[in-house]
Amino acid sequence: MKTNEVDRYIESSADFARPILTHLRELVHRACPDTEEKIKWGFPHFDYKGVYVSMASFKEHCAFNFWKAKEMDDPHGLLAGREEKAMGNFGRIRSLSDLPPDKILLEYLKLAKELNDRGIKRVTTRPSTADKESLEIPADLAAELNRNQAARQHFDAFTYGKKREYILWITEAKTDATREKRISTAVEWIAEGKVRNWKYQ
To answer: How many other C-beta atoms are found inside a 10 Å radius of the C-beta of residue 107?
Structure first.
């Protein structure tokens, strides 16, 4: 168990994030004592007979993710659609109070463990050709990309998924100012060939 790597990750996280990550880590080990800790793609993963769960911290929130969330039972209706709002299945976690009660979290962790015990595979859905063709680039983003040749070339070479991550990030902005700032940042990163979540890879 590469405990020191996860220790360092937690210690280097923001003050608000440390108690959240520490608590989640403890619950994972309570539910599945045989789990193995690893750093993958820049953030902690817990493996048990394959990928099990993961957690991550960002500037203002944490995320917790069940690798096979779509295959899990969801007795309390906590998982449906949440992975679309943030990286994890419980949305943006800013404090321990944003988490479900320990009893429920342990229940979900055990449900996830059972899937790996049974050898259930994760179902991945790939967008159809029609979906890929219908991906619309916002006009303001397209205009800025067209002003930056390097960004335009990198963006055109990105996979559907990489393009979609940037587009969602921009279209989810709550204000015009935030949207403009995100477009500016996106074009800068894209010109360097960076994907949306390059910091966590």
So the answer is: 16
At residue 80, the pLDDT reads: 55
pLDDT at 186 over 70: yes
Cα–Cα distance, 176 to 6 (Å, whole number): 37
How open is the CA angle 39-195-13, to the nearest 5 degrees? 40
* HSE (side-chain half, CA atoms, 13 Å) at 72: 24
* Residue range 125-182, pLDDT digits in tens: 555 544 455 577 888 888 889 889 899 899 988 888 889 889 988 888 888 888 899 9
The domains located in the chain, with CATH, are 3-117 (3.90.1150.200), 129-200 (no CATH)
User: Across all residues in the chain, what is the average pLDDT?
Assistant: 85
pLDDT at residue number 2: 45
